[in-house]
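Module 6 notes. Inverse folding takes a fixed backbone as the condition and produces residue identities as the prediction. Think of it as a translation problem where the source language is geometry and the target language is the twenty amino acids. Below is one complete input and output pair. Work through it position by position during the lab.
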């Protein structure tokens, strides 16, 4: 009962002031005993009425209107799952390296499947770029525009700082756009990237709607052109996952989407969240499901803590649970690793994930591998924290930490000017972790600010039999190992100026043949 009253302060205060009025009326009048009894009866009735109203409101709140009758009992938990990746052109993997559905194809398939609704949360909305290698982004944008005219409900969530013509154009065509002012809620940014299609299919991963995150293979036309490199343009290596026919997962993820939508036009976060936004599954109560016939468990987590209503796991706790469950190894792939949280005025040590890794290494003898991107924005302190992390294993048997830097810039540094004209700077933006029994795929790098300030969503999948070929965890491990053993991953701390004439340095892969095509009219690839 107390929960009901405190959650709805408006109702509570209106009710009590009415009651006070009655009481005052009763006391001030010099009425005989009988009418005093009547007064008490009326008072009791008013009380009952108030309680009834409160109960009805809370019941409506629990039921929720926007879940299409979807419930834990009738949702679909026999799902298909596929990894999606964007591998920028020019990345040279060995021939037998694992290869997955392209992000572009995965997204396009989702939009083609859509019959009722498309809900997208994205950190970026930069699809319609005039750059010749942006054609897949443009295709996606055209497809979204086309869907708005097909009576398909499109809901988009963006940070208020995204000043996007793409969003404005979609809004004009009837898409519902929610702008979140993350800087007002938590001094942060919206970094979440996930999709829900037809309340059935889900995408979640590192990539937002950005032409730089698309376009691994030029498929857009015939004409080959030479590029002029814009220094800010990079092609991104991305990783995500798509679930098909998985309304049980939607049931839960939809509530994070609803939480974002509930902040429309709000400049502050409400003190208490509606019950409708509580988590359905969490760390303790995981969703039981089948992923391509493999028995699995899953739940979604959220950040920042402010955005975690009851029964919604905080991202950090989700990551803790994955590391704690690991018995043999933990493989982590992130763009940035920096246990620091900084505001405009000061920087503080942020020990959460750094400490968890130390615990796993020293106290539980779990093997840890960290694959971090090395690029022009890499904070120099990263190397100090990595050295410190490595030092903890000194003279401890079975303590094993290996760190490699995924360096796609080196080849650019060593490329001749002519080669530079043909290739793009590239960056590995993967954000995942895989262990012997679980996978975590998220929107964040392992940097303090991301988890403490920004909005992001994570996904945990547990599988007991992770050695099975058809298991997503095995596939993710293979992806990690592909990158780990690739020539781009280097154990040594990379130097800012590579020695391009040294044979021990990475010889630039032969991307002399790499070409980008302009966007021709080629409906076959859609
Ligand atoms: C998309 O980009 C093209 C070419 O840059 C431009 O002509 C068109 O107006 C843009 N569309 C929108 C909706 O901004
Ligand atoms: C977002 O919130 C900040 C801080 O409250 C405010 O200064 C800013 O104007 C807001 N931005 C928009 C677009 O409303
Ligand atoms: C989803 O389920 C429907 C109906 O059961 C089926 O036709 C469709 O092929 C499934 N989609 C995928 C991607 O498995
Ligand atoms: C929330 O989680 C707690 C503990 O796991 C559980 O007892 C409770 O039933 C959950 N509440 C809802 C609404 O699922
Ligand atoms: C280290 O690992 C080996 C086998 O992997 C095992 O036999 C040994 O007991 C372990 N030592 C410690 C201190 O855990
Ligand atoms: C690079 O491309 C630009 C414009 O396409 C061209 O002017 C320049 O000569 C090229 N540079 C080299 C080294 O090929
Ligand atoms: C795994 O795949 C390989 C080849 O792709 C196959 O030879 C092997 O039998 C498969 N193992 C299982 C358990 O399916
Ligand atoms: C699951 O099945 C789909 C086809 O239905 C396939 O594309 C995907 O690769 C499979 N996923 C795994 C993890 O084997
Ligand atoms: C680069 O490597 C070459 C060959 O190993 C060596 O001769 C040269 O001195 C090195 N240059 C620098 C600046 O280290
Ligand atoms: C990739 O590298 C190998 C050797 O490192 C080379 O033989 C092969 O031609 C390269 N492939 C491409 C597409 O650059």
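Target side of the pair, the amino acids:
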């Amino acid at each position: 009962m107390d929960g009901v009253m405190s959650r709805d302060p408006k109702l509570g205060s209106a009710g009590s002031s009415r009651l006070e009025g009655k009481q005052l009326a009763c006391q001030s009048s010099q009425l005989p005993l009988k009418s005093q009894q009547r007064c008490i009866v009326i008072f009791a009735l008013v009380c009952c009425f108030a309680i009834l109203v409160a109960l009805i409101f809370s019941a409506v709140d629990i039921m929720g209107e926007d879940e299409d009758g979807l419930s834990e009992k009738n949702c679909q938990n026999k799902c298909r799952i596929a990894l999606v990746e964007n591998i920028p052109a020019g990345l040279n993997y060995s021939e037998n390296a694992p290869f997955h559905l392209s992000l572009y194809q995965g997204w396009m398939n989702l939009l083609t499947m859509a019959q009722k609704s498309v809900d997208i949360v994205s950190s970026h909305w930069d699809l319609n770029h005039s750059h010749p290698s942006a054609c897949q982004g443009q295709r996606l944008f055209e497809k979204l525009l086309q869907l708005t005219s097909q009576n398909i409900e499109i809901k988009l969530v963006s940070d208020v700082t995204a000043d996007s013509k793409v969003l404005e154009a979609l809004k004009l065509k009837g898409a519902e756009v929610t702008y979140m002012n993350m800087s007002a809620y938590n001094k942060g940014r919206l970094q979440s990237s996930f999709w829900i299609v037809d309340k059935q299919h889900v995408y979640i991963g590192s990539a937002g709607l950005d032409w730089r995150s698309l376009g691994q293979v030029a498929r857009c036309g015939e004409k080959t052109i030479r590029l002029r490199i814009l220094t800010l343009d990079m092609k991104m290596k991305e990783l995500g996952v798509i679930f098909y026919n998985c309304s049980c997962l939607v049931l839960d993820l939809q509530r994070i989407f609803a939480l974002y939508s509930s902040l429309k036009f709000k400049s502050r976060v409400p003190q208490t969240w509606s019950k409708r936004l509580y988590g359905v599954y969490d760390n303790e109560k995981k969703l039981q499901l089948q992923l391509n016939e493999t028995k699995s468990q899953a739940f979604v987590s959220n950040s920042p803590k402010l955005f975690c209503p009851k029964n919604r796991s905080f991202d950090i706790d989700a990551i803790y649970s994955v590391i704690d469950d690991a018995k043999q190894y933990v493989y982590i792939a992130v763009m940035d690793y920096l246990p620091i949280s900084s505001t405009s005025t000061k920087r503080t040590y942020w020990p959460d994930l750094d400490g968890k890794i130390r615990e796993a290494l020293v106290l539980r003898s779990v093997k840890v591998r960290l694959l971090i991107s090395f690029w022009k924005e890499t904070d120099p302190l990263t190397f100090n924290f990595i050295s410190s992390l490595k030092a903890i294993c000194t003279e401890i048997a079975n303590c094993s930490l290996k760190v490699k830097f995924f360096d796609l810039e080196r080849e650019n540094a060593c490329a001749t000017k002519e080669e530079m004209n043909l290739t793009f700077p590239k960056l590995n933006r993967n954000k995942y972790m895989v262990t012997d029994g679980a996978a975590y795929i998220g929107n964040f790098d392992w940097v303090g600010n991301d988890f403490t300030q920004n909005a992001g969503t994570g996904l945990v999948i547990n599988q007991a039999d992770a050695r099975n070929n058809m298991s997503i965890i095995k596939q993710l491990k293979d992806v990690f190992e592909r990158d780990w053993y690739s020539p781009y991953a280097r154990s040594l701390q990379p130097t800012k100026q590579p020695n391009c004439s040294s044979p021990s340095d990475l010889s630039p892969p032969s991307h002399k043949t790499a070409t980008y095509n302009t966007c021709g009219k080629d409906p076959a690839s859609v």
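Reference fact for the lab report: The chain has 15 helices and 27 strands.
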